[in-house]
Description:
Layout: H1 2-14, H2 19-40, H3 43-68, E1 77-79, E2 85-87
Antiparallel strand pairs: 1-2
Helix pairs in contact: 1-3, 2-3
Amino acid sequence: MITYAGKLADKRFEAGYDLGEVQTAFNALEEASWQRALADLDPSELADALGLVGTLLGAGKDALARRYVPSPPTRTLRRSACGRSSQEPPAPEMKKPRRSEASS
């Protein structure tokens, strides 16, 4: 799931999709899976099944987010002139591409 979600994130990012749009698709898949499980499984099997669905798709959503959102920059401590430690400022955020109107 993690490998698949990473590849999917790369493709969707390059196509200009926002992270929220891609995660919405994962949420829809999770909801459909839960509905199917509720309709088809014995009540004694639901806790395990729904836990697995949530874990699997949660890992996928996490992998998506990790590809879209860069890791926080490594912050190094430095000494200021008065001897106190301070942190370097964070790096600028990565800009997301926009889909062209023609591909909508």
